[in-house]
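The aim of this short unit is practical: by the end, you should be able to scan a pair of folded records and say something sensible about each. We start with the first protein, listed as its amino acid sequence and then its structure tokens.
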Amino acid sequence: MSTTLSTPTAPAPEAARATGLRRHGGVNATFLGIELRRLLRNRRTVIFTLIMPPMFFLIFGTSGSYRTTSAGNGNVTAYVMISMALYGAMLATTSGGAMVSVERAQGWSRQLRLTPLRPSAYIAIKVSIAMVLGLASVVVVYLVGLAEGAQADVSVWIVTGLTAWIGSIVFAAFGLFMGYLLAAENVMQLLGPALAVLSFAGGLFVPLGDGVFATIGKVTPLYGLAELVRAPLVGTGVTFTSVANVVVWAAVFGAGAVWRFRHDTARV
């Protein structure tokens, strides 16, 4: 009786790569690069997020009197700069998230279902790419502000910039929610005016003051984040109302995005 022994062989490179992809939920550097290039090829998104916010800052925040008027730990020009940086980050992250509506219309979501990419990894990639564009928008506005007379403590520049960027993840979730909820041909046409209204209601463009409008504005999605971002400059400190506003709206938009995503993947 003879016995044939087989020598174990190393896994094929293709199998090893597939195992690695599954381990990371289907995420790899190539896919991230493709997603980033797809976002940057959208000229309308780039123009709105990298050009419009600094342009608004130049129009509304560079008055001579603003440069010499104090606003806590800086001048009024810095106050307007911080507000426009948050506006730009919000536009960028919302637009990045909402692009999922176009992908759904083109059948890209259906194609991804045939790959090792996990749904949670797909959401994480979309949010990450949106945050990259949000960071670019904040940096551009701050560079223009530095050149145009915005003055504040170094710590204020750093903390406000990071808060505007990190806090804008709330609107990445908002963009995803709307991207799954609305049709591709309508999503940006509706989100553009909606973000402008939220900016006014949240006190990003003009102070809310007192009265009924101010009371209503405090429960809108942008109010809490705007207060948190500007707090290091004006020196008012972080309030419970602002933190609660951000937490509640982050939960609402995040839950909405997950709900619509599950509904969409179940349909696909």
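Turning to the second protein, read its sequence before its tokens, just as you did above.
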Amino acid sequence: MVRVGISVEGITEERFIKTLLVPYLQSKGIFVTPVPMNGNISVDRVSYELEKLAYSFDYVTTFYDFYGFKHKHASETKETLQSKIKESIKDHLQRKLLPYIQMYEFEGLLFSSPEAIAAVLQNESHLTWANSILAEFDYNPEKVNDSRETAPSKRFENNTHYRKTTHGPDIAERIGLVKLREMCLGFDQWLTALERLVS
């Protein structure tokens, strides 16, 4: 048995973890607990939180949006941010930390299935809308972009009646982990790293 604390951005991500990841990972002997940060994610802010969690769990990981990360440089990448998070905590705790940044937002994952979006939002026209966005980004949900106007959550906000904290986890649940992992390779690699904690 391994106990893992997951520092997450907010309520939406907390619900997502509880609905999909907790039962799946528990079946593998990995007991995860999401701990929300309530927004304003930055290296400085998460450093204290992660050190605190590292003393309470066997391992600690993160589930933050790249788009929402504060004070990042224009040249910053997912990998450089993950390295900075790891380096921000004390040396003896770093072996317990698996930093993960979701490209570009949690809502990007939802484009893994336009069918699930249309079904949960109960609007068939959303099937065409979401399919066109997916096609625009080479059928890779994790490429749906980093922009104030066209970020995944903004697309939902401007084109649907999407409510983040309820519809987001519901759409993800309808998609299922198998499809999410198949469509989102970064997300799949993170889950694979968590699964390896018990091997």
